[in-house]
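Agenda item 2: S-adenosylmethionine complex prediction
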Amino acid sequence: MTWQATILTLFPEMFPGPLGLSLAGKALREGRWAIEAMDIRGFATDRHRTVDDTPFGGGAGMVMRPDVLDAACEAATAANPGAPLVYLTPRGRLLDQALVRELSAGPGVVVLCGRYEGVDQRVIEARNMVEVSAGDFVLSGGEPAALLLLDACIRLLPGVMGGAASAAEESHGTDGLLEYPHYTRPAEWQGHRVPDVLLSGHHAEVARWRRAEAEAATRARRPDLWDQFTRRMAEQPNTAKAGRLDGHPAAA
Ligand code: SAM
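Presented output:
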C-alpha cells in the first residue's frame, strides 16, 4: 500500500521539494509513497482569500482562522482517511524516532503547516490534532518541519533503504543509543589511523567495540538518552519501548 502524505500549506510549491530527489525521490517515483500538497488559501471564502486575522486579546502578528482551516482539514482527511492529523508547532511534543517509526508504520499522515503566529486553538482541539515540534527553536513556517518529518518517515518505509538492519543499528534505533563512529579508506589519513580493531576482521570484537563506543557517546553527549537507556535495561533487558502518538510511552 502506498504511504500517503497530505500537506496543508500556504506554499504548496515547496513540496515535494528536496523529497523529489535522492532516496525519497526514487521511492516517490516507485510509488512507495505519494504526496498531495493542498493550498489552505483554496478553502478561504471571501474574495480576498483571507486565511488569517488579528489575535483576540491584542498582540503582534496574525492567527490562522479556524473556519478556513477546518474546511481544509475536512478535505485533507477525506483524501487521506485513517491518517493522523499532525500540526507542526514549537508547542508540540518533540519529534523523535519513536514517533517517526509509529507514523511510518501507519497509512500516512496529514500535516498542517502553520504560518504567522500560528493556528486558532479551537480547531486544534476540534480536529484532535497531534501537536509535534521539530525542535526547541522557531521556524517561520511549518513547511521545513514537514519536510524533515516526511524525510524521516519515508526512509523507514519498506523497500526504501537498502539494508533492513541499518535502521535498527543507527542512532535512535531500537536500543535507544547514539551510533558508534564510522571510518573508511584510507586506513591512515593525515597521521590518524583507523582503530586497529576495525581492521582485525574479528566480527565479535568489532561488534563489542562498536557497542562500547555507542554507549560512551550516548553517556557523554546525551545524558537524557543515557538515563532512559539504563532505566530500560534495568526494567526490561533486551527490549526498547516504542512511543505513542499521544506522547506517552507504549505499554509493555
Ligand atoms: N508564535 C508561535 C510560537 O511562539 O509558538 C510560533 C509561530 S511560527 C513563526 C509559525 C509556524 O511555524 C508555526 O505555526 C508552526 O507551524 C511552524 N513552526 C515554527 N517553529 C516550529 C518548530 N520548532 N516545529 C514545528 N513547527 C514550527
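Discussion summary: Residues 240-244, 247-252 have pLDDT under 50 and may be disordered.
Owner for follow-up: CH.
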